[in-house]
Amino acid sequence: xxxxxxxxxxxxxxxxxLRSFADGNGNGIGDLAGLQARLPYLRDLGxxxxxxxxxYVSPMADGGYDxxxxxxxxxxxxxxxQAEALIAAAHEQQLKVIVDIVPNHCSDQHRWFTAALAAGPxxxxxxxxxxxxxxxxxxxxxxxxxxxxxxxxxxxxxxxADGGAGEWYLHLYAPEQPDLNWENPEVGEEFxxxxxxxxxxxxxxxxxxxxxxxxxxxxxxxVAGLPAGARKPWEDQDGLHDVYRSWRQVIAAYPGDRxxxxxxxxxxxxxxxxxLSGDQLHTAFNFDFMGAPWNAxxxxxxxxxxxxxIGASAPWVLxxxxxxxxxxxxxxxxxxxxxxxxxxxxDLALGxxxxxxxxxxxxxxxxxxYLYQGEELGLWEVEDxxxxxxADPIFERTGHLVRGRDGCRVPLPWLGDSPGFGFGxxxxxxxxxPQPGQWRQLAADQQASDGGSMLExxxxxxxxxxxxxxxxxxxxxxxxxxxxxxxxxxxxxxxxAEGVLAFTRPGGFSCVLNLSNAPVPLPPHKELLLASGPLDxxxxxxxxxxxxxxxxx
Length: 553
Ligand code: NOJ
Prior knowledge:
Elements: H1 6-9, E1 12-16, H2 32-37, H3 39-45, E2 49-52, E3 56-57, E4 69-73, H4 80-92, E5 96-101, H5 111-119, E6 131-132, E7 155-159, E8 165-170, H6 185-200, E9 205-208, H7 239-252, E10 259-262, E11 283-284, H8 287-291, H9 296-309, E12 316-317, H10 326-329, H11 348-364, E13 369-372, H12 393-397, H13 444-447, H14 454-467, E14 477-478, H15 492-496, E15 500-505, E16 509-514, E17 520-521, E18 527-531, E19 539-540, E20 544-549
Parallel strand pairs: 1-2, 1-13, 2-5, 5-9, 9-10, 10-11, 12-13
Antiparallel strand pairs: 3-4, 6-8, 7-8, 14-15, 15-16, 16-20, 17-19, 18-20
Helix pairs in contact: 6-7, 11-14
Bound molecules: 1-deoxynojirimycin.
């Protein structure tokens, strides 16, 4: 329905969190030189595209999601010339490049915001943002009760030229990220120009940061008393559709089937429908799938709702740079994805088994899949980063109550026997966050050619996915309609009801995932193509997945 480019519809896109991927210049922070040197790794893994988190000039108050100049690269990461070279090098290796665009807010160091502060109340410069007088007799209370997503109020008061306390400005995230006012046509024009700037440089698409927040109810009403689950005045506003209709025309004018991927956390997923109706975004992440607990009925419900409401147009995703790594989630008593105050310990061996099975489920479903860097190495969430090293603004904004997202952003281990596990050159600075010592065995070089490793499982699965043309189709039939139920006599049907997901794709490919507590027989098949773990006397153990060839093909 969303008119998604064919290449993206079947793509496996690898998310690169640049500052933690690979450090080329030895300053302890990942950069473009490091990424370019590792492109062959991504090609060999079997990725079709990369999505790069923001690379723009930024004071890095929120890992680069506070952009000071949308048309240049931050010196920490490299130069514009290096970015252009990277796009070209990626294309040479058959990898498409999706970049992040951050239109909801910019940095407080952006020239527009510094001009707004200088220009004062009522100015055209302030009209690009949401400046308002405070409430109360002396204006010392914020203009409304909106919370910042990072904790505390969404408003900060600024001093005026005379040194006195002045207006407040809105920031749904950190104070260093003032929200732009999309009611102001200048803002829309500027972003369309920025899109063209990067399209001209050859990018294949954009991941749109908080795509559902740009437009606000201009009355800025309080939210106290809104029923739970009601639409907030900063999300999913009608005016957004005009923004994306216009963006769609911008991108459509370029050759090469480029793509918009929305970051939209609206729940349930059916709320994505209007955005994907064909004249706006091409796709948006499937966060209901990412948030689903390790439970057959819940996973099946999300898959069914996705396929029946928006088709296979929402990439399957298990992790990203904002959530606890799924390997750790799946090892906990509560496996859902929501941030939890007291998540409890994680059984990492169990989490690893489930993560192996989960990726085989994702990759067997119709549509595209996004991988988050390091999941292919079996990395877990690092939960003991020393307080003084935590960089995520959530930690400070919540008065150290929430440790935030750094645990999934720890630099990757490439070489088990090198300092910093080869994240950077051997004589370079330590990685910007410390890596657990046990990651030695998870380093890419230690896993390469070890048939039982997570890395080799990913490589094998991606190879099979690419080789089997039928997997590019959108058809999926659950086992009861696919004839597997006919084998009830073999004990299949009884166990299936209690936590086994099994489906076929046209052409004789089946995926079976056992989320129950007991081994189950495999349905009749011609060949076992891949299993996420050893079988138990021919049966599929708990927390294990198998891909089968069920017919001649
Ligand atoms: C979503 C991004 O993924 C996250 O990392 C960031 O903090 C917020 N948007 C604000 O830009």
